[in-house]
Amino acid sequence: MADTATGTQYSDPNVTPPLAQAVPLGFQHVLAMFASNVTPSIIVAGAAGLAFGGPEQIYLIQMAMLFAGIATLFQTVGIGPVGARLPIMQGTSFAFVGVLAGVTATQGLSVALTACIIGGVLHFCLGAVIGKIRWLFPPLVTGLVILAIGLYLIPVAIKYAAGGAAKFQMEAESFGSLLHWSVALTVVIVALGVKFFTKGSLSNAAILIGLLAGYLLAYILGMVNFGAVSKASWITSIKPLPYGFQFSLGAVIAVTLVSVVSAIETVGDASATAKAGAGRDATDEEIQGATYADGLGTAVAGVFGGLPNTSFSQNVGIVGMTGIMSRHVVTIAGIIMIICGLLPKIGAVIASMPLPVLGGGVIVMFGMVAAAGLNVLTEVKMNRRNMVIIAISLAAGLGLNLVPTAVQYLPGVVKTLMTSAVAPTALCAIVLNLVLPEEMDQDGA
Protein backbone atom coordinates (compact mmCIF):
# COMPACT_ATOMS: atom_id res chain seq x y z
CA MET A 1 0.00 0.00 0.00
CA ALA A 2 1.09 3.50 -0.64
CA ASP A 3 2.00 5.60 2.33
CA THR A 4 0.85 9.19 2.68
CA ALA A 5 3.93 10.58 1.00
CA THR A 6 3.52 8.36 -2.04
CA GLY A 7 -0.25 8.88 -2.09
CA THR A 8 -0.08 12.65 -2.46
CA GLN A 9 0.20 12.22 -6.24
CA TYR A 10 -3.35 10.80 -6.04
CA SER A 11 -4.92 13.72 -4.18
CA ASP A 12 -7.12 14.32 -7.24
CA PRO A 13 -10.23 12.09 -6.92
CA ASN A 14 -10.31 11.63 -10.71
CA VAL A 15 -6.84 10.08 -10.93
CA THR A 16 -6.58 6.28 -10.83
CA PRO A 17 -3.53 4.43 -9.41
CA PRO A 18 -2.19 1.46 -11.41
CA LEU A 19 -4.55 -1.54 -11.17
CA ALA A 20 -1.90 -3.52 -9.26
CA GLN A 21 -2.28 -0.92 -6.52
CA ALA A 22 -5.93 0.07 -6.99
CA VAL A 23 -7.42 -3.43 -6.64
CA PRO A 24 -5.70 -4.26 -3.30
CA LEU A 25 -6.71 -0.81 -2.03
CA GLY A 26 -10.29 -1.57 -3.05
CA PHE A 27 -10.18 -4.84 -1.11
CA GLN A 28 -8.81 -2.92 1.86
CA HIS A 29 -11.87 -0.67 1.83
CA VAL A 30 -14.12 -3.73 1.71
CA LEU A 31 -12.33 -5.45 4.60
CA ALA A 32 -12.67 -2.34 6.77
CA MET A 33 -16.47 -2.20 6.46
CA PHE A 34 -17.60 -5.73 5.62
CA ALA A 35 -18.58 -6.94 9.09
CA SER A 36 -20.28 -3.68 10.04
CA ASN A 37 -22.23 -3.72 6.78
CA VAL A 38 -23.92 -7.11 7.18
CA THR A 39 -24.54 -7.01 10.93
CA PRO A 40 -27.59 -4.66 10.92
CA SER A 41 -29.45 -6.99 8.55
CA ILE A 42 -28.78 -9.98 10.80
CA ILE A 43 -30.13 -8.10 13.83
CA VAL A 44 -33.25 -6.82 12.07
CA ALA A 45 -33.87 -10.32 10.68
CA GLY A 46 -33.70 -11.61 14.25
CA ALA A 47 -36.20 -8.96 15.39
CA ALA A 48 -38.51 -10.11 12.58
CA GLY A 49 -38.34 -13.66 13.90
CA LEU A 50 -36.71 -15.02 10.75
CA ALA A 51 -34.94 -18.34 11.12
CA PHE A 52 -31.24 -17.88 11.88
CA GLY A 53 -29.42 -19.13 8.78
CA GLY A 54 -32.69 -19.42 6.87
CA PRO A 55 -33.27 -18.28 3.27
CA GLU A 56 -35.00 -15.02 4.27
CA GLN A 57 -32.14 -13.98 6.52
CA ILE A 58 -29.64 -14.91 3.79
CA TYR A 59 -31.61 -12.72 1.36
CA LEU A 60 -31.41 -9.71 3.69
CA ILE A 61 -27.65 -10.24 4.05
CA GLN A 62 -27.30 -10.40 0.25
CA MET A 63 -29.21 -7.15 -0.15
CA ALA A 64 -26.95 -5.49 2.43
CA MET A 65 -23.88 -6.36 0.36
CA LEU A 66 -25.45 -5.69 -3.03
CA PHE A 67 -26.84 -2.26 -2.21
CA ALA A 68 -23.78 -1.18 -0.24
CA GLY A 69 -21.97 -1.64 -3.53
CA ILE A 70 -24.63 0.09 -5.60
CA ALA A 71 -24.89 3.02 -3.18
CA THR A 72 -21.09 3.32 -3.25
CA LEU A 73 -21.23 3.67 -7.04
CA PHE A 74 -23.88 6.37 -6.60
CA GLN A 75 -21.27 8.26 -4.56
CA THR A 76 -18.13 7.61 -6.57
CA VAL A 77 -19.42 7.50 -10.16
CA GLY A 78 -22.49 9.67 -9.68
CA ILE A 79 -25.61 10.35 -11.72
CA GLY A 80 -26.15 14.02 -12.54
CA PRO A 81 -26.26 15.91 -9.22
CA VAL A 82 -26.24 12.63 -7.28
CA GLY A 83 -22.91 11.64 -5.74
CA ALA A 84 -20.02 13.50 -4.19
CA ARG A 85 -17.63 11.87 -6.67
CA LEU A 86 -15.26 11.41 -3.77
CA PRO A 87 -13.83 8.13 -2.37
CA ILE A 88 -16.77 7.61 0.02
CA MET A 89 -17.71 4.01 0.87
CA GLN A 90 -21.39 3.39 1.58
CA GLY A 91 -22.76 0.63 3.78
CA THR A 92 -25.75 -0.43 5.87
CA SER A 93 -26.16 2.02 8.72
CA PHE A 94 -26.13 1.06 12.40
CA ALA A 95 -27.97 4.30 13.17
CA PHE A 96 -31.26 2.81 11.98
CA VAL A 97 -30.96 -0.56 13.72
CA GLY A 98 -32.73 0.44 16.94
CA VAL A 99 -35.69 2.03 15.19
CA LEU A 100 -36.02 -0.69 12.54
CA ALA A 101 -35.63 -3.57 15.01
CA GLY A 102 -38.40 -2.05 17.16
CA VAL A 103 -40.71 -1.42 14.20
CA THR A 104 -40.00 -4.88 12.77
CA ALA A 105 -40.70 -6.63 16.07
CA THR A 106 -44.02 -4.84 16.57
CA GLN A 107 -45.31 -4.14 13.06
CA GLY A 108 -43.34 -6.39 10.74
CA LEU A 109 -40.71 -6.12 8.01
CA SER A 110 -43.22 -4.76 5.51
CA VAL A 111 -43.77 -1.63 7.62
CA ALA A 112 -40.05 -1.25 8.33
CA LEU A 113 -38.96 -1.52 4.70
CA THR A 114 -41.77 0.77 3.53
CA ALA A 115 -40.51 3.35 6.03
CA CYS A 116 -37.00 2.90 4.60
CA ILE A 117 -38.23 3.63 1.08
CA ILE A 118 -40.15 6.76 2.08
CA GLY A 119 -37.40 7.83 4.49
CA GLY A 120 -34.86 7.41 1.70
CA VAL A 121 -36.87 9.68 -0.61
CA LEU A 122 -37.12 12.34 2.13
CA HIS A 123 -33.40 11.86 2.84
CA PHE A 124 -32.73 12.49 -0.85
CA CYS A 125 -34.72 15.73 -0.66
CA LEU A 126 -32.52 16.86 2.23
CA GLY A 127 -29.73 17.29 -0.29
CA ALA A 128 -31.32 20.50 -1.52
CA VAL A 129 -31.39 22.08 1.96
CA ILE A 130 -28.72 20.27 3.95
CA GLY A 131 -26.47 23.31 4.10
CA LYS A 132 -29.28 25.45 5.50
CA ILE A 133 -30.31 23.15 8.36
CA ARG A 134 -26.89 22.04 9.61
CA TRP A 135 -27.17 24.62 12.41
CA LEU A 136 -29.95 22.54 13.99
CA PHE A 137 -27.48 19.70 14.55
CA PRO A 138 -24.39 20.94 16.38
CA PRO A 139 -22.00 18.40 17.97
CA LEU A 140 -24.14 18.42 21.14
CA VAL A 141 -27.12 17.01 19.24
CA THR A 142 -25.32 14.64 16.86
CA GLY A 143 -23.04 13.34 19.60
CA LEU A 144 -26.03 12.60 21.85
CA VAL A 145 -27.89 10.76 19.11
CA ILE A 146 -24.88 8.62 18.19
CA LEU A 147 -24.23 7.87 21.87
CA ALA A 148 -27.88 6.86 22.34
CA ILE A 149 -27.69 4.53 19.35
CA GLY A 150 -24.61 2.80 20.79
CA LEU A 151 -26.05 2.50 24.31
CA TYR A 152 -29.33 1.15 22.94
CA LEU A 153 -27.52 -1.54 20.93
CA ILE A 154 -25.08 -2.75 23.59
CA PRO A 155 -27.66 -5.00 25.36
CA VAL A 156 -28.34 -6.62 21.97
CA ALA A 157 -24.63 -7.40 21.69
CA ILE A 158 -24.58 -9.02 25.15
CA LYS A 159 -27.61 -11.16 24.32
CA TYR A 160 -25.97 -12.41 21.14
CA ALA A 161 -22.67 -13.09 22.89
CA ALA A 162 -24.47 -15.11 25.56
CA GLY A 163 -26.08 -17.23 22.89
CA GLY A 164 -29.46 -15.79 21.98
CA ALA A 165 -31.68 -12.87 21.16
CA ALA A 166 -35.21 -14.26 20.99
CA LYS A 167 -37.07 -14.94 24.25
CA PHE A 168 -36.92 -18.73 23.91
CA GLN A 169 -33.18 -18.57 23.22
CA MET A 170 -32.55 -16.47 26.35
CA GLU A 171 -34.55 -18.93 28.42
CA ALA A 172 -32.57 -21.93 27.17
CA GLU A 173 -30.18 -23.62 29.60
CA SER A 174 -27.24 -22.92 27.32
CA PHE A 175 -27.82 -19.13 27.41
CA GLY A 176 -24.84 -17.49 29.10
CA SER A 177 -22.80 -20.70 29.11
CA LEU A 178 -19.01 -20.74 29.24
CA LEU A 179 -19.05 -22.27 25.75
CA HIS A 180 -20.83 -19.24 24.30
CA TRP A 181 -18.74 -16.70 26.17
CA SER A 182 -15.46 -18.41 25.24
CA VAL A 183 -16.32 -17.99 21.56
CA ALA A 184 -17.51 -14.39 21.97
CA LEU A 185 -14.45 -13.36 23.99
CA THR A 186 -12.15 -14.98 21.42
CA VAL A 187 -13.60 -12.61 18.83
CA VAL A 188 -13.09 -9.60 21.11
CA ILE A 189 -9.52 -10.54 22.12
CA VAL A 190 -8.36 -11.34 18.59
CA ALA A 191 -9.97 -8.18 17.18
CA LEU A 192 -8.27 -6.01 19.80
CA GLY A 193 -4.94 -7.74 19.30
CA VAL A 194 -5.02 -7.30 15.53
CA LYS A 195 -6.22 -3.70 15.79
CA PHE A 196 -3.50 -2.51 18.16
CA PHE A 197 -0.56 -4.77 17.35
CA THR A 198 -0.65 -4.73 13.54
CA LYS A 199 -0.75 -2.02 10.89
CA GLY A 200 -2.26 -1.31 7.49
CA SER A 201 -4.77 -3.71 5.97
CA LEU A 202 -4.65 -6.14 8.91
CA SER A 203 -5.41 -3.42 11.42
CA ASN A 204 -8.27 -2.08 9.30
CA ALA A 205 -9.80 -5.57 9.07
CA ALA A 206 -9.46 -6.28 12.81
CA ILE A 207 -13.12 -7.02 13.49
CA LEU A 208 -13.43 -9.22 10.41
CA ILE A 209 -10.34 -11.20 11.48
CA GLY A 210 -11.75 -11.51 14.99
CA LEU A 211 -15.00 -12.88 13.57
CA LEU A 212 -13.06 -15.39 11.48
CA ALA A 213 -11.15 -16.54 14.58
CA GLY A 214 -14.37 -16.95 16.54
CA TYR A 215 -15.98 -18.72 13.59
CA LEU A 216 -13.06 -21.18 13.46
CA LEU A 217 -13.30 -21.90 17.19
CA ALA A 218 -17.07 -22.36 16.94
CA TYR A 219 -16.53 -24.81 14.07
CA ILE A 220 -14.00 -26.79 16.12
CA LEU A 221 -16.48 -26.89 18.99
CA GLY A 222 -19.23 -28.22 16.70
CA MET A 223 -21.38 -25.08 16.79
CA VAL A 224 -21.48 -24.40 13.02
CA ASN A 225 -24.08 -25.88 10.68
CA PHE A 226 -23.30 -25.56 6.97
CA GLY A 227 -26.62 -27.04 5.84
CA ALA A 228 -27.90 -23.73 4.51
CA VAL A 229 -24.70 -23.17 2.52
CA SER A 230 -25.17 -26.32 0.44
CA LYS A 231 -28.83 -25.41 -0.21
CA ALA A 232 -28.12 -21.79 -1.20
CA SER A 233 -28.14 -21.00 -4.93
CA TRP A 234 -25.19 -19.46 -6.75
CA ILE A 235 -26.96 -16.37 -8.10
CA THR A 236 -29.22 -14.02 -6.13
CA SER A 237 -32.81 -13.70 -7.28
CA ILE A 238 -33.69 -10.05 -6.58
CA LYS A 239 -37.31 -9.40 -5.59
CA PRO A 240 -38.95 -5.95 -5.61
CA LEU A 241 -41.01 -5.33 -2.47
CA PRO A 242 -40.33 -8.85 -1.11
CA TYR A 243 -42.48 -8.16 1.98
CA GLY A 244 -45.05 -5.89 0.38
CA PHE A 245 -45.75 -2.21 0.99
CA GLN A 246 -47.40 -1.20 4.28
CA PHE A 247 -47.45 2.39 5.48
CA SER A 248 -47.11 3.47 9.13
CA LEU A 249 -46.76 7.17 9.93
CA GLY A 250 -44.89 6.52 13.18
CA ALA A 251 -42.36 4.28 11.47
CA VAL A 252 -41.81 6.82 8.67
CA ILE A 253 -41.32 9.68 11.14
CA ALA A 254 -38.87 7.62 13.22
CA VAL A 255 -36.82 6.58 10.18
CA THR A 256 -36.87 10.13 8.80
CA LEU A 257 -35.56 11.57 12.07
CA VAL A 258 -32.64 9.15 11.99
CA SER A 259 -32.14 9.97 8.30
CA VAL A 260 -31.52 13.60 9.20
CA VAL A 261 -28.81 12.57 11.65
CA SER A 262 -27.38 10.16 9.05
CA ALA A 263 -27.30 13.00 6.52
CA ILE A 264 -25.35 15.18 8.94
CA GLU A 265 -22.88 12.30 9.47
CA THR A 266 -22.44 12.00 5.71
CA VAL A 267 -21.71 15.73 5.49
CA GLY A 268 -19.01 15.19 8.10
CA ASP A 269 -17.57 12.19 6.24
CA ALA A 270 -17.51 14.09 2.94
CA SER A 271 -15.73 16.99 4.62
CA ALA A 272 -13.28 14.65 6.38
CA THR A 273 -12.54 12.78 3.14
CA ALA A 274 -11.74 15.97 1.24
CA LYS A 275 -9.55 17.18 4.10
CA ALA A 276 -7.76 13.84 4.59
CA GLY A 277 -7.12 13.12 0.92
CA ALA A 278 -6.69 16.54 -0.65
CA GLY A 279 -6.14 18.94 2.25
CA ARG A 280 -9.16 21.04 1.31
CA ASP A 281 -12.77 21.61 2.36
CA ALA A 282 -15.58 19.77 0.60
CA THR A 283 -17.48 21.95 -1.86
CA ASP A 284 -21.21 22.66 -1.55
CA GLU A 285 -21.79 20.51 -4.65
CA GLU A 286 -19.90 17.59 -3.10
CA ILE A 287 -21.88 17.83 0.15
CA GLN A 288 -25.18 18.04 -1.71
CA GLY A 289 -24.21 15.17 -3.99
CA ALA A 290 -23.18 13.00 -1.04
CA THR A 291 -26.57 13.58 0.62
CA TYR A 292 -28.46 12.84 -2.59
CA ALA A 293 -26.54 9.57 -2.97
CA ASP A 294 -27.24 8.64 0.66
CA GLY A 295 -30.99 9.06 0.19
CA LEU A 296 -31.15 7.41 -3.23
CA GLY A 297 -29.16 4.42 -2.00
CA THR A 298 -31.50 4.00 0.98
CA ALA A 299 -34.68 4.28 -1.11
CA VAL A 300 -33.52 1.86 -3.82
CA ALA A 301 -32.25 -0.63 -1.25
CA GLY A 302 -35.59 -0.50 0.59
CA VAL A 303 -37.47 -1.45 -2.58
CA PHE A 304 -35.56 -4.73 -2.75
CA GLY A 305 -35.34 -5.54 0.98
CA GLY A 306 -32.15 -3.69 1.89
CA LEU A 307 -31.74 -1.46 4.94
CA PRO A 308 -30.74 2.24 4.87
CA ASN A 309 -27.25 3.13 3.66
CA THR A 310 -24.85 5.77 4.90
CA SER A 311 -21.20 6.73 4.45
CA PHE A 312 -18.73 4.66 6.49
CA SER A 313 -16.36 6.72 8.61
CA GLN A 314 -13.76 3.96 8.99
CA ASN A 315 -13.09 4.18 5.26
CA VAL A 316 -12.30 7.88 5.62
CA GLY A 317 -9.45 6.74 7.84
CA ILE A 318 -8.08 4.58 5.01
CA VAL A 319 -8.01 7.60 2.70
CA GLY A 320 -6.10 9.55 5.34
CA MET A 321 -3.71 6.66 6.02
CA THR A 322 -2.85 5.92 2.37
CA GLY A 323 -3.14 9.49 1.07
CA ILE A 324 -4.89 8.08 -2.02
CA MET A 325 -7.94 10.19 -2.82
CA SER A 326 -8.91 8.32 -6.00
CA ARG A 327 -12.66 7.73 -6.16
CA HIS A 328 -12.00 4.92 -8.65
CA VAL A 329 -10.33 2.85 -5.91
CA VAL A 330 -13.58 2.95 -3.92
CA THR A 331 -15.51 2.22 -7.12
CA ILE A 332 -13.56 -1.05 -7.27
CA ALA A 333 -14.60 -1.71 -3.66
CA GLY A 334 -18.23 -1.08 -4.61
CA ILE A 335 -17.98 -3.55 -7.50
CA ILE A 336 -16.52 -6.18 -5.13
CA MET A 337 -19.51 -5.70 -2.80
CA ILE A 338 -21.95 -6.04 -5.70
CA ILE A 339 -20.31 -9.33 -6.73
CA CYS A 340 -20.59 -10.58 -3.12
CA GLY A 341 -24.24 -9.51 -3.05
CA LEU A 342 -25.01 -11.55 -6.16
CA LEU A 343 -23.63 -14.78 -4.65
CA PRO A 344 -26.02 -16.28 -2.04
CA LYS A 345 -23.37 -18.81 -1.03
CA ILE A 346 -21.49 -15.93 0.62
CA GLY A 347 -24.62 -14.82 2.45
CA ALA A 348 -25.25 -18.40 3.60
CA VAL A 349 -21.72 -18.67 5.03
CA ILE A 350 -22.29 -15.42 6.94
CA ALA A 351 -25.71 -16.60 8.13
CA SER A 352 -24.19 -19.84 9.43
CA MET A 353 -22.17 -17.81 11.91
CA PRO A 354 -23.24 -18.82 15.46
CA LEU A 355 -24.78 -16.06 17.58
CA PRO A 356 -21.88 -15.89 20.08
CA VAL A 357 -19.45 -15.22 17.20
CA LEU A 358 -21.60 -12.34 16.00
CA GLY A 359 -22.05 -11.21 19.60
CA GLY A 360 -18.32 -10.87 20.14
CA GLY A 361 -18.04 -8.75 17.02
CA VAL A 362 -20.94 -6.46 17.82
CA ILE A 363 -19.73 -5.90 21.40
CA VAL A 364 -16.78 -4.16 19.79
CA MET A 365 -18.80 -2.51 17.01
CA PHE A 366 -21.63 -1.19 19.18
CA GLY A 367 -19.19 -0.07 21.84
CA MET A 368 -17.36 1.87 19.14
CA VAL A 369 -20.63 3.52 18.09
CA ALA A 370 -21.13 4.76 21.66
CA ALA A 371 -17.48 5.82 21.83
CA ALA A 372 -17.90 7.74 18.56
CA GLY A 373 -20.76 9.64 20.16
CA LEU A 374 -18.60 10.45 23.16
CA ASN A 375 -15.85 11.59 20.82
CA VAL A 376 -18.23 14.05 19.17
CA LEU A 377 -19.32 15.29 22.59
CA THR A 378 -15.71 16.12 23.47
CA GLU A 379 -16.15 19.11 21.17
CA VAL A 380 -18.90 20.38 23.50
CA LYS A 381 -18.19 22.58 26.51
CA MET A 382 -19.45 20.66 29.55
CA ASN A 383 -21.21 23.54 31.29
CA ARG A 384 -24.44 23.29 33.26
CA ARG A 385 -26.68 24.04 30.30
CA ASN A 386 -25.18 21.35 28.07
CA MET A 387 -25.02 18.80 30.89
CA VAL A 388 -28.73 19.34 31.54
CA ILE A 389 -29.46 18.74 27.84
CA ILE A 390 -27.37 15.55 27.86
CA ALA A 391 -28.99 14.30 31.06
CA ILE A 392 -32.60 14.88 30.03
CA SER A 393 -32.17 13.69 26.45
CA LEU A 394 -30.52 10.41 27.43
CA ALA A 395 -32.89 9.83 30.34
CA ALA A 396 -35.92 10.31 28.11
CA GLY A 397 -34.61 8.33 25.16
CA LEU A 398 -33.13 5.33 26.95
CA GLY A 399 -35.58 5.35 29.86
CA LEU A 400 -38.71 5.09 27.72
CA ASN A 401 -37.07 2.43 25.59
CA LEU A 402 -36.25 0.33 28.66
CA VAL A 403 -39.76 0.79 30.14
CA PRO A 404 -42.08 0.97 27.10
CA THR A 405 -45.18 0.30 29.22
CA ALA A 406 -44.69 3.77 30.71
CA VAL A 407 -46.29 5.15 27.54
CA GLN A 408 -48.58 2.23 26.72
CA TYR A 409 -51.67 4.45 26.52
CA LEU A 410 -50.26 6.77 23.87
CA PRO A 411 -51.52 6.42 20.27
CA GLY A 412 -49.63 3.87 18.18
CA VAL A 413 -47.67 6.38 16.11
CA VAL A 414 -46.56 8.38 19.14
CA LYS A 415 -45.77 5.24 21.13
CA THR A 416 -43.53 3.95 18.33
CA LEU A 417 -41.60 7.21 18.35
CA MET A 418 -41.38 7.55 22.13
CA THR A 419 -39.98 4.05 22.67
CA SER A 420 -37.46 4.09 19.82
CA ALA A 421 -34.59 5.50 21.98
CA VAL A 422 -33.14 7.51 19.10
CA ALA A 423 -36.19 9.66 18.27
CA PRO A 424 -36.90 10.99 21.79
CA THR A 425 -33.19 11.59 22.40
CA ALA A 426 -32.92 13.58 19.18
CA LEU A 427 -36.13 15.53 19.77
CA CYS A 428 -35.22 16.45 23.35
CA ALA A 429 -31.69 17.47 22.36
CA ILE A 430 -32.85 19.65 19.45
CA VAL A 431 -35.65 21.37 21.37
CA LEU A 432 -33.65 21.96 24.55
CA ASN A 433 -30.68 23.24 22.57
CA LEU A 434 -32.97 25.77 20.88
CA VAL A 435 -34.90 26.97 23.95
CA LEU A 436 -32.45 26.88 26.86
CA PRO A 437 -30.65 30.22 27.09
CA GLU A 438 -26.91 30.47 27.14
CA GLU A 439 -27.31 32.86 30.08
CA MET A 440 -27.60 29.83 32.37
CA ASP A 441 -23.81 29.63 32.24
CA GLN A 442 -23.03 33.14 33.42
CA ASP A 443 -22.54 31.97 37.00
CA GLY A 444 -20.12 29.27 35.90
CA ALA A 445 -20.56 25.55 35.48
Write up what this structure looks like.
The chain is an all-alpha fold. 69% of the residues lie in helices and 1% in strands. The protein has 21 helices and 2 strands. The longest helix is centred in the middle third of the chain and has 30 residues, at 249-278.
Give the overall shape, derived from the CA principal axes.
globular
How many runs of DSSP E, i.e. beta strands? 2
Number of helices: 21
Query: What fraction strand?
Result: under 5%
Radius of gyration: 21 Å
Count of separate structural domains: 1
Could you say which structural class the secondary elements and strand pairing correspond to? mainly alpha
Low-confidence stretches: 1-7
Q: What is the H-and-E element order? A: HHHEHHHHHHHHHHHEHHHHHHH
Across the major sheet, the strand order is 1-2
Helix content: 55-70%
Mean pLDDT, to the nearest integer, reads 84
Distance N to C terminus? 48 Å
- Biggest β-sheet, characterized? 2 strands, antiparallel
Topology:
Elements: H1 4-7, H2 19-47, H3 55-76, E1 90-92, H4 97-107, H5 109-126, H6 130-133, H7 139-162, H8 167-170, H9 178-197, H10 200-204, H11 206-220, H12 227-231, H13 249-278, H14 284-303, E2 309-311, H15 313-322, H16 327-341, H17 344-351, H18 355-377, H19 384-402, H20 412-418, H21 422-435
Helix pairs in contact: 2-3, 2-4, 2-11, 2-16, 3-14, 3-16, 3-17, 4-5, 5-13, 5-14, 7-18, 7-19, 7-21, 9-11, 9-18, 11-18, 13-14, 13-15, 13-20, 19-21
